[in-house]
Design a protein that fits this description.
28 strands; 15-stranded parallel β-sheet; single chain
């Protein structure tokens, strides 16, 4: 019997899901506290004995053995075991239903605008302290943005196969033209905003007000007012990447549980950017000065939770992403109060039929965006006929699980940008487009950019698209256990700088069409790891390294996808547990 490419991809994700169900998680709830590595802060390995995929009595070899010995400081593989909601928890909160949108006037037959009713229910439940807003089966027309802006609040449909939000208007129509802060005629709806918009209510009002006033906002953790955020402590001693603690001048304003930013400035010689690239010799000779878009992302802002304060030592909930060299003036500050412990579940977001717009002129028929979220989640959500499917903008520790992008084709099916860190995309898929791509459009895939770090894409099926590393020096990101028909292209302005920083890892990737671009990265990314990918060849978009000289990158088990451990993220989780 002949098997179609679609059938092969579907079978692949089913096998991967079945394998995941058989792992040592056993369905148990894993909280951040319970998942603390026994010897984490000391920098030693979190587990002993055979690891995932090891043969009984045998010692693992190669990259995986090296990582197990030095999990927090391996030069090519990042430690991502704590990525996602609540440090990688397998279950999301099930809060009591506090509102049913039908009781607020929502109409499940699509005959009237239900956005006011849904938004009113979310606002009342959120302002009362949280709970679940239920959207029963049906098709709900929405003529406005659905805004989830309150912590501890869940928007829950009855399942993506039975509850649909049918969007009739674009973000351009609803909010206005969102131009680029870098000038030109580009539409920022090409990479920002969603018709379901998860974002703190105050931040959302500030953002949309700035857009309407044509005062284009910086969408990250501190917005356009970086200097107005309160400095809580200055780091006074250097700690190495992979350490769990820093020493500060005065820790009296810090408490366990605080959500803060660890900020790094850059030095005049751009040593911070060199360090993000792994301190390879070629980074030191790279010309950073004309990378204006990249330089606008600095200071690097890493959101972290304080777990302990002992004297002047402050310990965080995960290892440091970079060294804290005093030349970079590391400091702990406040940030935009994030949206915390909120989620969207069990629904489809479908657009009214429109053709895909020319590249960078998207009107904003976008699915869902998580912006300034922290310990939030999106589960069983399907986006259809979108310009952009699922976006993360300055998101932290947020899980996207069982998500899907379908329909007429999109610019960014998935995007992760503006300093998004420690997020998890798992059991995701991108379906083959239902109509041919219009002239002048572009397709990317699973995107990461803008100094984003320690994000994971796991167990995916991509019938189109690619591993879109969109310049902006992202570093320490993982793509693992994915099947892809690699037919997209990466993007990124030259002013955004290098495609890759250090510790990018592509681990067990099946490429169904043999295209190397953006998947095999051992000859282009510094201090990277490419493990157990299909045999591929260069064609289509072909890049050259940003840095000269040795890259210190690794290629292992080439041409043999399926080598254990198949899923790097899950294998790291098993070590952590």
């Amino acid at each position: 019997m002949a098997i179609s490419r679609r059938g092969m991809l579907t079978a692949s994700i089913q096998v991967a899901s079945a394998a995941a169900a058989a792992t040592a998680f056993g369905g148990a709830v894993t909280t951040a506290a319970a998942a603390q590595p026994a010897a984490g802060p000391a920098g030693t390995a979190p587990g002993a004995g055979p690891g995932p995929g090891d043969v009984a009595g045998a010692q693992p070899t190669g990259l995986w053995a090296e990582f197990r010995a030095t999990p927090y400081t391996h030069p090519q593989i990042p430690y991502v075991a704590r990525a996602g909601f609540d440090g990688g928890a397998r279950h999301f909160p099930r809060r009591p239903v506090r509102a049913n949108v039908l009781h607020y006037g929502a109409v499940p037959d699509g005959s009237a605008d239900s956005a006011p009713a849904i938004n009113r229910a979310l606002r009342e439940v959120g302002e009362a302290g949280g709970g679940t807003v239920l959207v029963p089966p049906g098709t709900y027309r929405i003529d406005d943005v659905i805004q989830l802006g309150w912590s501890n609040t869940t928007l829950r449909g009855a399942g993506s196969d039975v509850t649909t939000l049918y969007a009739t208007k674009s973000l351009t129509q609803l909010i206005g033209v969102y131009g680029s802060r870098y000038g030109g005629d580009k539409s920022s709806w090409s990479w920002a905003g969603g018709l379901v918009w998860m974002c703190p209510a105050d931040r959302y009002r500030t953002l949309t007000g700035a857009i309407r006033a044509k005062d284009w906002p910086f969408e990250g953790w501190t917005g356009n007012k970086r200097d107005e955020f309160d400095v809580l402590a200055h780091v006074t001693a250097e700690s190495a990447q992979g350490s769990w603690s820093v020493t500060v001048d005065d820790a009296r304003r810090l408490r366990p549980g605080d959500r803060v930013l660890l900020q790094y400035a850059d030095d005049p010689a751009h040593g911070l950017l060199d360090h993000m690239a792994g301190d390879v010799e070629g980074a030191a000779t790279y010309y950073w000065e004309d990378k204006t878009k990249l330089l606008s992302y600095v200071p690097y802002e890493w959101p972290a939770r304080v777990t302990a304060v002992r004297g002047r030592q402050v310990t965080f909930d995960r290892p440091l992403p970079l060294d804290t060299r005093l030349l970079w003036q590391p400091r702990i500050t406040t940030c935009v109060p994030p949206l915390v412990n909120s989620g969207v579940e069990g629904l489809t977001i479908q657009m009214t039929p429109t053709p895909q717009s020319p590249h960078l002129l998207d009107k904003g028929y976008n699915g869902l965006v998580a912006q300034c979220t922290w310990d939030c989640w999106v589960d069983d959500v399907h986006a259809i006929d979108v310009d952009n499917g699922f976006l993360m903008v300055a998101a932290k520790a947020t899980t996207f699980r069982r998500t899907r992008v379908s329909g007429r084709g999109s610019h960014h099916p998935y995007a992760c940008r503006e300093g998004a860190h420690d997020n998890l995309f798992e059991d995701f898929r991108i379906d083959q487009r239902t109509v041919p791509a219009p002239s002048g459009t572009q397709l990317h895939g699973i995107n990461v950019e803008g100094l984003s770090s320690y994000n994971v894409w796991s167990r995916g099926a991509m019938e189109m698209g690619t591993f879109d590393t969109h310049r902006g020096l992202p570093f320490a990101n993982v793509r693992t256990d994915i099947t892809v028909s690699n037919d997209g292209s990466h993007g990124g302005d030259a002013s955004a700088g290098p495609l890759y920083g250090a510790r990018f890892t592509h681990w067990n990737v099946t490429v169904t069409n043999g295209r190397a671009g953006c998947v095999r990265i051992d000859d282009i990314a510094p201090y990277s790891a490419t493990f157990a990918i299909s045999t591929v060849r260069p064609f289509g978009q072909i890049d050259v390294p940003d840095f000269t000289g040795p890259l210190h990158s690794r290629l292992e088990a080439y041409g043999t996808p399926g080598v254990a451990p198949v899923n790097l993220y899950e294998a790291q989780r098993e070590l952590l547990l």
